[in-house]
Amino acid sequence: MGNIENKWMRAVLPALLIHCSIGTVYCWSLFKADIAYYIDRPLSEVEWAFSLAIFVLGMSAAFGGRFVEKNVKRSALLSTLFFTVGMVGTGFFIYQKSLIGIFICYGVIMGIGLGIGYLTPVKNLMLWFADRKGLATGIAVAGFGLAKVIASPLMEMLMGPTNADGTLQNPANVYNMFYILAAIYAVCMIIGFLLIRKPKGHVESAAAAKAFSYRKVLSNKVFIGIWIMFYINITCGLALISQEKSMLAAVGFTAIGLMSAVTAVFNAGGRLFFSAWADRLRDRNTIYKIIFGSALVSIGAMIVFDGINAGSVVLVVVLLCVINAGYGGGFSNLPTLLADRFGLNSISTVHGLALSAWAFAGLSGNQLSAKILAATGSYDYVMYAILALFTVAILISMFVVKPGLVTFGQKEAIAKEQHA
Prior knowledge:
This protein is mostly helical. The protein contains 19 helices and no strands. The chain has helices spanning 7-22, 28-39, 43-46, 48-70, 72-95, 99-128, 133-159, 173-195, 206-211, 214-218, 221-241, 244-250, 256-278, 286-304, 313-342, 347-354, 356-376, 379-399, 410-419.
């Protein structure tokens, strides 16, 4: 067993196994229309299953942080159970043509598995990679982003050929696919559960846990600033990513599938690149200024040069790549920025609370651009709204999220514990 007692086997590999499994939630667009067709319900109704899954992900992370903090192996197992049972249940209720059952299994049960699973490897990685925390969390969170690239071909193979109208030749494949995927991901996540372990000798501080205060964190100006920054980055990212296909079509770009793969790579690459870069910076918050600044430049170029109406493929492609990279980078840098500001002792709990922003952004992001387009019929107003939001985000990053460690008395509690 000695040869596997290292950070790659006990932290990185289990993190990738867990995140590459649960990250397939972003493959929703591949099969949502097939579910709607099979159960004979409007796509607009079926869409709520995904929104619910993201909302429950964020909220289960917010309330599950303390549980993850106490026992990383138990949380890995719990995530595996909820995620795979949710997938099997989704397949069963598609077969039963029950939309409520799909909401419960895909949205709630699987959503809980997503939230607990997303949190589980993060602190463990930072403990094993004390000197390169950003790189470590970037690798894991990149796995969440790359899951779509890995799973998409498998899902398309399992669903089989389509008819001329885009429907599946064998509609039953859509629920059978969930059963098969549940089995595959159960194996991956169980291996992750068996491997994951905190560094030998590390013991969580009971005094730090006791000194931790939800009220003090939630009312802290720096935490609120980080929460709003994170919320804006996801909302703006989803507002544009959800319109990716139609924006490309509007400028006459036809290789939509290729561009989807390219932006997915930028999304995953941004998670790794920005977090590794942040390890070299004096203040990790600087990376958010870079992410928001690059977004402002690319959106500003779209407005100044009238990118959509002028049919500029280059400007649209650059915008989508920049936004996807920044979207991913915002996720991977969140836990390390929070660790820098609030310490490692309760980072799973604080990170979980911050992920509640993801829950609300999951409900508002897609809707923002959809409602503006429905009201105006123009992408120009979408760009103005996104520009305004990113401006707010960069101002918060500059003037609210100040450097410095906030401990809420945890540091003093640990010192007393050690002295005793």
